[in-house]
Amino acid sequence: MIRLTEIKLPLNHEAEALSTAITTKLKISPEQMASFVVFKRGYDARNKRNIQLIYTLDVTLNDAELTKQLLIQFETDQHVKATPDTSYKYVGNAPKDLTERPIVIGFGPCGLMAGLTLAQMGFKPIIIERGNEVRQRTKDTFGFWRQRKLNTESNVQFGEGGAGTFSDGKLYSQVKDPNHYGRKVMTEFVKAGAPDEILFVSKPHIGTYKLVSMVEKMRAEIIELGGEIRFGTRVDDIHITNEQITGVTLNTGETLNSNHVVLAVGHSARDTFQMIFDKGIYVEAKPFSIGFRIEHKQSTIDQARFGDNAGNEILGAADYKLVHHCNNGRSVYSFCMCPGGTVVAASSEENRVVTNGMSQYSRNERNANSAIVVGIDPERDYPNHPLAGIDLQRELESLAFELGGRDYNAPAQTIGDFLKGKPDSELGDVKPSFTPGITLTDLSKALPDFAVDAIREAIPAFNKKIQGFASEDGLLTGVETRTSSPISIKRNKEFQSMNTKGLFPAGEGAGYAGGILSAGIDGIKVAEAVAKSILKID
Ligand code: FAD
Question: What's the domain of life for this entry (predicted)?
Answer without folding.
Answer: Bacteria
